[in-house]
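Recap from last week: sequence in, structure out.
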Amino acid sequence: MNLIELYIHEVTRRLPEKGREDIALELHSTIEDMLPDNFTEQDVKSALSKLGNPAILASGYRDRPMHLIGPRYYDIYISLLKMILPIALAISFISLIADNIVSYSSDNAVLNVILSIIGEGIWRILSTAIQVFFWLTLLFSILERTDHAKKQIPLTSSFKEWSPEDLKNISYVPMEKAISKFEVFGGLLWTAIWATIYFNAANLIGVYEKGQEGLEFITPTFNQAILHSYWPLVVLVIGLELGSSIYKWITGQWTKKVAFLNTVFHFVSSVVFITIFSNPDLFKVSFIAYMNDLFTTTNEVKEWIFWVAVFTFVLFAAIDSYQGFRKANIHKGDTK
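Predicted structure tokens:
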């Protein structure tokens, strides 16, 4: 084969068999038109260079793209990947923690449970990330190949071509005013952790001592029956925290409504915390006896501990509420 035949073969072997012969004749004619009479090998190389890479030339004859995700859908693909991947990872990790805490048995040392969560968590996060990446990529590759528009103009997040009108939908959010997805999912993760611990406190929180087979659970700190008796108030706090996190995720920035909702959540959670913590039967009798054996505790000391705990909880709630309104009052130009 000479260079012309080799070039045509390189182009046509990438095309469906039924159209190869016609395209080969067309290419042959095109190349001949580009060559002078009594052409040399250098003339042939020059003509083939103008036609370009055979793979790129072949893609022009194909109905299907020769890339997995093209420029038309790439921006939407990356945007969805950034949005879905953290959600899937957070849900996967939260469900793992909830499963381990709910199924926790006092026969297992806490350290072993934590190591199990870390090990399984890494594997589950990797598995979830691979699953999300695979299925989203497959979806967009199918979408790209079933789109017969034959345009390469990138689409916006609304699956339409960009126009100046889209600029009206863009709002500038200062960095200090923005609410990151990490903050939102961190809040959801914290809700899942404390809620599952609360409803399993008798199996998790207590006095541990070193035994022959590692840490042994001696006595729980809290009276689980008392904790369960406040479940409507605790569910109310969980609902407010979930609602607040979802609203933060939707708005993406601190506004006065977000700050107000955040303050309501902190006010309600503070009232519920004080109500539960002030119950004289909250702590197990065995736990109090154990602590009395270790330390000399008087009623004054117990009352002091109660007020320190209440003051600390309310102080952090007040600081977070204030920070919410401070960030909500940040306007464009206040930060650089």
